[in-house]
Amino acid sequence: MTRFKIDTENNITAFGSSEQIKDSGGETEIFASRQELAALAEKWPATRLVEIWNSLPGIEPVERFTSQQAAVSRIWKAIQRLEPSTVAPKRPRPVRKRSSGKKPPRVAQKRAGASSKTARVIALLERPKGATLKELMRATGWQTHSVRGLISGQLKKKLKLKVRSFKREGERVYSIKPR
Predict the structure, then answer these.
(1) In a designed cystine with 34, which of 76, 107, 145, 170 is the match (CB 3.0 to 4.6 A)?
(2) Between these two residues, 104 and 166, which has the higher pLDDT value?
(3) CB-CB neighbours of 144 under 10 Å
(4) Residues whose CB is less than 8 angstroms from the CB of residue 168 and which lie 6 or more positions away in sequence, other chains included
(5) CB-based contacts of 64: which residues, under 8 Å, 6+ apart?
(6) Domains of the chain as residue ranges with CATH
(7) Phi, psi (rounded to 5 degrees) for 31
(8) Sheet holding 12-15, edge to edge
(9) What is the pLDDT of residue 134?
(10) CA distances (Å), 72 to each of 4, 16, 128, in order?
(11) CA nearest neighbour of 71 among 36, 46, 96
(12) What's the per-residue H, E or C state across the chain?
């Protein structure tokens, strides 16, 4: 039966047998089941459960859990894939702290997926003559206000593209410089 050891720095190590676990004089806690983990977690602050979760490899970090029971269940499920080892545990990765303020602006790193409507609109706008509002409506299947919203919100504000708008023969035309 796999047993787990958690130290004061929230490093969890899996062991194949009890003999492999060396006692560290009260600095570590040992558990072998979800119930034992839940009993240990009852005396831990909620922040420790978050730190334990965020230090596990290959998971999406969280800021908090909805309940202690949910935290224990998720942690138990995640540590089941740990391989028993005799090697010292790796250092946990640091917890990402959220900055208070606005999110950093999106860069036009990925203008859009190749088959998305946004990609189709960008391709039409990059043509030398641009695209009329009617052409954009036909390409997306949207109404005029939706197309204008995409241009204003997604293309200009989020992707930071320079979209020009002008009238040609009484019809509204939009264009951007090709990549």
Answers:
(1) 76
(2) 166
(3) 12
(4) 132
(5) 46, 50
(6) 3-79 (no CATH), 117-175 (1.10.10)
(7) -150, 155
(8) 12-15, 3-6, 29-31
(9) 92
(10) 14, 21, 58
(11) 46
(12) CCEEEECCCCCEEEECCHHHCCCCCCCCEEECCHHHHHHHHCCCCHHHHHHHHHHCCCCCCCCCCCCHHHHHHHHHHHHCCCCCCCCCCCCCCCCCCCCCCCCCCCCCCCCCCCCCHHHHHHHHHCCCCCEEHHHHHHHHCCCHHHHHHHHHHHHHHHCCCCCEEEEECCEEEEECCCC
Structure tokens at 165: 């708008």
pLDDT digits (tens, 9 = 90+) for 135-168: 999 989 999 999 999 999 988 888 889 999 999 9
Q: What sign for the dihedral angle of Cα 149, 152, 155, 157? A: negative
Tokens of 139: 């390409």
Token readout for 4 is 């787990």
Cross-strand pairs, 171? 168
At which residue do the structure tokens 């072998």 appear?
32
